[in-house]
UniProtKB/TrEMBL annotation:
Designated name of the protein: Tripartite tricarboxylate transporter permease
Spans through the membrane: 108-136, 148-164, 171-189, 201-224, 322-341, 361-385, 397-430, 469-491
PANTHER family: TRICARBOXYLIC TRANSPORT PROTEIN
Organism the protein comes from: Pseudokineococcus basanitobsidens
Residues of the DUF112 domain: 21-442
Keywords assigned by UniProt, alphabetized: Membrane, Transmembrane, Transmembrane helix
Length: 502
């Protein structure tokens, strides 16, 4: 514990330098600005701004992306509260009561509840990461190739069965991701795979090109294909005080803490996402509200915003810990961040705290700083963010397309990357049209090569004995948990279909 605190103090010394403070501030500012725009959201904010950070040193780039990560999450909630259109699925639960508060003339209080909830949930989760991630990394450092292969299988199957509405569509997305991830030279044999004879593809398809193409350009093409661009939702003006009264704070505080308790564990579940803890928090607060003499839910209950917001940001905080300690992304946004690490040649995982201790502790310290920056930015400036929602979509998405193309070309100066960007954008568009999830593609692109390497290494060591993949207690536990997760997911889907039929 004392050693962790000393390392964290060193991280603050690095993160509090003027240049790194600037990157934290810019990341939070840009993340919120992109996250608040209709149809974008936090994952696209990170993907869209990833090319910008490649010109920075690794520490500054990752610090800025961490700010973008948290800033985008708050931007998701602004659109939900003011426009009844959450920017991401993690902001849906808070939208129910948040938009009702806005219609009741309490938009400023709803945004303040969201900002403080994000701060409380993120602060507690980041503290858990700072104190627990190094010990967890030490534990995982004993993992061999069999254990890491089991973890990647857990992530793949959880993506296909748990996250995707259709198992077949989830598996199809995984296959697409595997195919893209295998392009290039096989590092173990030197064999060229799936390059179509194009020399620029020998190093594989860049993660920046993949994320910007699938997420940003795919969304642009999807919006452009619709016959009606206007959503018809009414933007609610932000009026009144951008802070909570003492009574409102006392009412929201227990919900913030309960939401955080829901969110922290879900951040370490492979591809668990933040939808489940936010809805669990919302359901809990609604049940507690029903016991009151005068229930408030349905009329703009502040606890209906406080709990889900804290849960969503707590999940995001511990997802960062899972990314640093395990090297496994537990959400689409975390997958993009993992791609940023790999772009700088810094693979996250158990050895990260030993090999790149200065960087990782500066990153963790910047997460604390970013939370304070977000509160300072978002409490008084929520009306300014609301003005961004008035931008015409035709200008907004045209600007995104130009920015994405310039960012990709500036990264490597390759026309092949621009062609890949267009092709992946079309792929992202088709996947959206047919409701094929994007998260499995990103997971498979990044973790596919890792799974292949560990599988081949395990089989090489055991001389082809397949049983070596389940030869340790850890692998047995991982596969057992996977079976339980799949069974629960299947049972849940069957129940939802039966209730829908009724």
């Amino acid at each position: 514990m004392a050693e962790n605190l000393a390392d964290l103090a060193g991280g603050f010394a690095t993160a509090l330098t003027p240049i790194n403070l600037l990157w934290v501030f810019l990341g939070a500012l840009l993340g919120t600005a992109v996250g608040v725009l209709p149809g974008l959201g936090s994952s696209m904010a990170v993907a869209l701004l990833l090319p910008v950070t490649l010109a920075l040193d690794p520490t500054g780039a990752l610090i800025m992306l961490a700010g973008v990560y948290y800033g985008g999450l708050f931007g998701d909630s602004i659109t939900g509260i003011l426009l009844n259109t959450p920017g991401n699925s993690s902001a849906i639960a808070a939208t129910f009561e948040g938009h009702r508060m806005a219609l009741d003339g309490r938009a400023a209080q709803a945004l303040a509840t969201s900002a403080i909830g994000a701060f409380v949930g993120g602060l507690i989760a980041t503290t858990v990461v700072a104190l627990g991630a190094p010990a967890f990394a030490d534990l995982v450092s004993a993992f061999g190739p069999e254990e890491f292969f089991a973890l990647t299988v857990f992530a793949f199957v959880a993506t296909a069965f748990v996250v995707a509405d259709s198992v077949l569509k989830g598996l199809a997305a995984l296959v697409i991701g595997f195919t893209v991830g295998l392009v290039g030279i096989d590092l173990q044999t030197g064999t060229v795979r799936y390059t179509l004879g194009v020399p620029q593809l020998f190093d594989g398809v860049g993660i920046v090109v993949i994320t910007v193409g699938l997420l940003a350009l795919g969304e642009v093409l999807h919006v452009a294909s619709r016959s009606k661009h206007a959503s018809g939702d009414r933007l609610v003006a932000v009026q009144g005080r951008p802070f909570l009264s003492r009574a409102e704070f006392r009412e929201a505080l227990p919900a913030w803490l309960r939401g955080t308790a829901f969110g922290v564990p879900f951040g370490v579940i492979p591809v668990g996402g933040s939808e489940v803890p936010t809805f669990l928090s919302y359901g809990t607060e609604r049940r507690l509200d029903s016991r009151l003499r005068v229930p408030k839910f349905g009329r703009g209950a502040i606890r209906g915003v406080a709990g889900p917001e804290a849960a969503g940001n707590a999940t995001a905080g511990t997802a960062m810990g899972a990314l640093l300690a395990l090297g496994l992304p537990t959400s689409a946004t975390a997958a993009v961040l993992l791609g940023a690490f790999e772009q700088f040649g810094i693979p996250p995982g158990p050895l990260l705290f030993e090999r790149e201790g200065d960087l990782v502790w500066a990153l963790i310290a910047s997460l604390f700083i970013g939370l304070f920056v977000l509160v300072v930015l978002n409490l008084p400036f929520a009306p300014l963010w609301a003005r961004l929602l008035k931008i015409s979509r035709q200008y907004l998405y045209a600007g995104i397309t130009v920015f994405a193309g310039l960012g990709i070309y500036a990264t490597a100066g390759s026309a092949v990357d621009l062609a890949l960007l267009l092709g992946l954008g079309l792929l992202g568009f088709l996947m959206r049209r047919h409701d094929v999830p994007l998260a499995p593609v990103l997971i498979a692109v990044i973790l596919g090569p890792l799974a292949e390497t560990n599988l081949r290494r395990s089989l090489a060591i055991s001389e082809g004995d397949v049983t070596t993949l389940v030869s340790t207690p850890i692998t047995v536990v991982i596969y057992a948990l996977l079976v339980v997760a799949v069974v629960l997911a299947v049972v849940g889907k069957i129940r939802r279909r039966r209730s829908a039929d009724v």
